[in-house]
Amino acid sequence: MNSSALIHAVVDGVLTGSVYALMATGLTLIFGVMDIINLAQGILVILGAYLSYTLSVHFGVDLFVGLVFTIPILFVVGIVIERLFVARLKGPERTAMSILVTYAVSLVIEGILNEVYSVNQVQLQAWYVDRSFPIFGVYLPYIYLLGFILAASMLGALYFMLYRTRFGASIRASLSDQTSAALVGIDTKRVATICFGIGVAVTAAGGMIYGATNAFNASSSYDLISRLLTIIVLGGMGSLGGALVAGIMMVLLQDIVAVVWSPVWSSMTFFVVLVIVLSLRPQGLFGKLSARVA
Amino acid sequence: MKKYGNLWRTLGVTSVAASTVLMLANSSGAVAKSHALAPIKIGISLSLSGDFSADGTAFDQGYNLWAADVNAHGGLLGHKVVLDVVSDASSPTQVVTNYQKLVTNDHVALTFGPFSSLLSLPAAKIDARYGYAMIEGAGGAPSVFQQGLHNLFDVSLPVKDDLLPFAQWISALPASKRPTTAAYVTTNDAFTQPQIPVAQNIMHAAGIKTVYNSVFPSETTDYTPIADAVAAAKAQVVVLGSVDVPTVSSFMQAFEQAHYTPKVFIATGGPDQGTQFTKAVGLGNANGMMVPNAWYGGATTPGSKAMVAEYVKKYGGTAATVSADVAEAYSVGQIAAQAVKATGGFNNAKIIKYLHSGVVLTSVQGPVKFDALGENNQATAFTFQWQGSNFVQVNPVSSAASKPVLFPKPAWKS
Fold first, then answer.
1. A2 vs B216, B217, B233: nearest CB
2. How far is B327 from chain A (nearest CA, A)?
3. pLDDT score at B323
4. For residue B335, which of B306, B357, B308, B312 has the smallest C-alpha distance?
5. What are phi and psi of A21, to 5 degrees?
6. Positive or negative CA dihedral for A17, A21, A27, A31?
7. Which of A76, A217, B220, B404 is the most buried (most CB within 10 A)?
8. Which domain holds residue B266?
C-alpha cells in the first residue's frame, strides 16, 4: 500500500463525503418534517446537474455562479412537487404512499431529462474541474475542495436557519411533534411545503458538484438515491447531524478500504458496519426511537 | 305461431351460419392473400434507460438503420420489417420478462439480442425455451457461451481476444522503448474480466512488471481512490477493464488531478463510444486513449461506409463518432437477413440449423462464421486510438489499414 494513496483516500473521503452529506440533508429534512421518503431526490440531484450544464454550455455561466439561478429554480420545483403530489397524501399510509408517489415523480423527470438531454453521459467542465494543487505531498483537486467549502457553507446556512431564526424554530418544532407544533399556532403545512422546497433546493449544489466529478445521465440517479438512502438510515432518519456524519463516514470508509485492502471489499465493509450499527442502534447513529429531532 | 317460429328460427340460424361461413371465407382469403405482404415483427429488448442506456440507444439506432435499409429494398422475403422494441432498463430480470412477452404475447417472428453479456445470456435462455434463435451483437463473454445454448449466436468478436493485438504490439516494442510496468484494474463484469489475464500474460512474458492489479465491484461509483492507487503505483501502462464512459472519464480525471499520465492507457469500453466519450472527457484528453474493438467508423468492410453515411445523415456527427454498438446491432440484422433468405422463411429451427452449418456470412464488421458454441470465429480484433479528432485503427500492426500508434500518450490537456 502506498502512503500517498492512503492520504489521498482520506482527503477525498472527507471532501466528497461532505457533498453526499449535503444531498442527504435535503432528504432527511423532508423526512424529519413530513414523514415523506422522497425517492425523487436522486433524479433531482441530476436535474440540478443538468441545469448547471445548460447554464454553463449554452450561456457560459460559471458552475458556482450558476447556483444563483439553479438553487431558486429547484426550490420552486420542490414547492410544485409538494403542492401537486405530496400534500395530497393523507392518512396512516402516507409514508408508504410517498415512496410510490415520489418514485413516479422521479420516473417522469427521468423520462423528460432523457428526452431533452438524451441518454448520452455528459460532465460539467470548468478550469477547476480537472486541476489540482500540491499540499503536504499530495495533489488536492480544486473541485473537491470547492465542493467541500460549498457543502460546508450550505450546511452552515441550514443550521443557522434552523437554530437562529424564527422559521427554524417552527421547523424544529415540526420535527419534534407536528401535532403540538400545530397546537401552538405553527402553520405546519406551510412549514412542510417550504421544507420540501429547501430539501430539493440543496440538490442544485449537490448536483453541480456531482456533475463536475462524474460523467452522468438521467440513469445516474439510481446509484445516487441508493447512496443517499443509506446515508440517512445510518445517520438516523430525520437527523441532520446524522446525515453529515454518515455521509462522510460512508465515503471515507469505502475509500480507505479500497486503497488499504481492495475495492472489492469497500462497499461490503461499509454495509457490514451499517448492519452492526443498526443492530445496536436500530434508529441509526443520531436518530431517536420516540421522536425525530435535528 | 310455433310452426312459423321454428321456420324463422331455422332461417335465422341458417342465414347466420351462411354469413359466418362467407365472412370466414372472405377473411381467410384476405389473410391468405395479404400473408405474403404482411409485415413481420422482430422482437428486441434494449437498455433504453439504466446503466447501459447509452449503449442501448446506440443499438436501437443500429437496428433501426438496418430495418430502414431492408425495408427500402423490399423487406425480408417481401415482408416489411417492424421492430418491436421494449426497454429493459438494463435489468437482467426485466430482460427475461421482455423476451417472454415478445415471444408469447407479441408472437414476434424473430428475436434480436439486447445489449451486454449480462443481459444476452438470460435473454437467450428464454429464447431457447421457445425454440427461437438468439442472434446478438454484444454478448461475447466466455460465460455466455459456457452455458452451451444451441440457439445463441454472437456476430461480434469474442471478448477474450479483444486485447490480443494490443498486448502483442506492446510486447514487440524494442526493449529501449517498451514500458516496464503495468497496472491492471477492472470492474467485475463478464465482458471486461476475461480480457485482462490474456493481456497480462503476454505482457508479463515480455518483461512488463505488474505493479497494480485489482478488481472493483460493478456498482462502484466513486473511482477516485482506485485511480489514485493506480497513479501512486506510477505504472507506465494502464489496462482498464471498463464497460462505459463514466468509468473511463472518472479514471482520466483522477489521473489528471494526480498529475499522472501513463505512457499507454487502454480501456476495454468507453473510448469506442464516439461523441459520448469525447463530450465527456474533451477531445484534448481523449488524444492517445486506446480501446480494443472489432469495428470503427472508418472501417472498409463491405457495407460499412454506406451504413456510416446513412447514420451520419440520420443522426448527425462524423464517421469517427459513430459508436461500434451501431455496427454490432446492424450486423445482427444482416446475419438474420441472410439466414432468412437462405432458409426461405422465418422458421427458427431452420435458422438455427443454418447458422450452425459452418456457412460464412458477411456483415459490416467483417465475415461471420459460428462455431459450435455460437462464437464468431472469423472476427478479427483491432485496437483503435483517438488521435486528435480522429478515431483510427492502430493494431494489428501487420494490417495495412493500421496507422502508427501515438506513443507515448500525450499529457492531459483539458
1. B233
2. 18
3. 86
4. B357
5. -60, -40
6. positive
7. A217
8. 161-301+382-395
Residue pair B376/B370 in contact by the 8 Å Cβ criterion: yes
How far is Cα B354 from Cα B365, in angstroms, rounded to an integer? Answer: 20
Shortest distance, CA B368 to any CA of chain A (angstroms)? 30
Q: How confident is the model at residue B36 (pLDDT cuts 50, 70, 90)?
A: low
Asked whether residue B130 is assigned to any structural domain, the reply reads yes
Pair B360, B378: CB distance under 8 Å? yes
Chain centroid to CA B298 = 18
On whether both B229 and B123 belong to a single domain, the answer is no
- Work out the pLDDT band at A219, boundaries 50, 70, 90: confident
Query: Do B165 and B155 share a domain, yes or no?
Result: no
* Interface residue A18 vs chain B (CB under 8 A): no
Q: Other CB atoms closer than 10 Å to residue A108's CB: what's the count?
A: 12
Indicate which of A119, A124, A228, A269 best probes the interface with B, i.e. most B CBs within 10 Å of its own CB: A119
Query: Cis bond leading into B174, ω under 30°?
Result: no
Is CATH 1.10.3470 the right assignment for the domain spanning A3-280? Answer: yes
Q: Is the pLDDT of residue A19 over 70?
A: yes
- The ipTM, to two decimals, is 0.71
Max CA separation in chain A (angstroms): 60
B220 touches chain A (CB under 8 A): yes
Å from A61 to nearest chain B CA?
A: 18
**Quick check: A41 and A31 in contact, CB under 8 A?**
no
Confidence of residue A1 (pLDDT cuts 50, 70, 90): low
Do you know the residue count of chain A?
294
pLDDT tens per residue across span A112-152:
998 898 877 788 989 998 888 888 777 888 999 999 999 99
| Same domain assignment for residues B185 and B297 | yes
Does B238 lie in the same domain as B296? yes
Q: What is the pLDDT of residue B355?
A: 97
DSSP for residue A220: G
A115 inside 8 A of chain B by CB: no
Same-domain check for residues B67 and B209:
no
For residue B50, give the nearest of A213, A219, A251 by CB distance.
Answer: A219
* B220 chain-A contacts, CB cut-off 8 A: 263, 266-267
Give B147-173 pLDDT, tens digit per residue.
Answer: 899 999 999 998 888 999 999 999 999
- B57 in contact with chain A, both atoms CB, cutoff 8 A: yes
> Which pLDDT tens digit goes with each residue over A45-104?
999 999 999 999 999 999 999 999 999 999 999 999 999 998 888 877 888 899 999 999
Rounded distance, CA B381 to CA B358, Å?
A: 21
Q: What is the mean pLDDT of residues B290-314?
A: 91
Question: Residues A192-217: pLDDT tens digits?
Answer: 899 999 999 999 999 999 999 888 88
* Residue contact A9–B245, C-beta within 8 A: no
For the cut 50, the answer to whether the pLDDT of residue B25 exceeds it is: no
Question: Chain A within 8 Å of B315 (Cβ-Cβ)?
Answer: no
What distance in Å separates the CA atoms of residue B289 and residue B253, rounded to the nearest whole number? 13
Give which of A286, A264, A273, A260 is closest to A9, Cα–Cα: A260
For residues B173 and B85, state if they share a domain.
no
Note if the pTM is more than 0.80. Answer: no
pLDDT tens profile A32-46: 777 889 999 999 999
Q: CB-based contact (8 Å) between B58 and chain A?
A: no
B266 and B289 share one domain: yes
- B195 and B283 in a single domain? The answer is yes
The reply to whether B53 touches chain A by the CB within 8 Å rule is: yes
Give the CA angle between residues B210, B212, B213 to the nearest 5°: 90
